[in-house]
Amino acid sequence: xxxxxxxxxxKTTGNCDIVNITEEVDAILKKSGIKNGLLNVFIPGxxxxxxxxxxxxxxAGDFQNLLKTIVVEKDNYGHNITHSDGNATxxxxxxxxxxxxxxxxxxxxxxxxxxxxxxxxxMDNRERDREIIVKIIGE
Length: 139
Fold this sequence. Notes:
Elements: E1 2-12, E2 17-20, H1 22-32, E3 37-42, E4 48-54, H2 57-70, H3 78-82, H4 88-97, E5 100-106, E6 109-110, E7 116-122, E8 128-138
Antiparallel strand pairs: 1-8, 2-7, 3-5, 3-8, 4-7, 5-6
């Protein structure tokens, strides 16, 4: 059994910025040589999230609007009262989606659906340098 760890680095604009990382994750899988196993994508940090979506502009915009509707901007969140960064909505939105995603690997390919893409969503209220961890376990 092999265990491979790699990283994806990029910049984001914050405010529910969505970055399609499917190609980068697939490149790491191909480089690993693993044919069967499990692939995990993880964002270390409390204001980012990983999920899947059909990545097209209309749906990406709908998802951003949904996040902004579910967790609305307001100043009186407890986090904003105790911290000066004003990013309580960032933490709450990220908590709803979650920091990681696991994908089965069969015959050297991720078992994603036809339209399913892996995305990173930057929930923070400012630009950020982001580092995504990809860990693949298998043979």
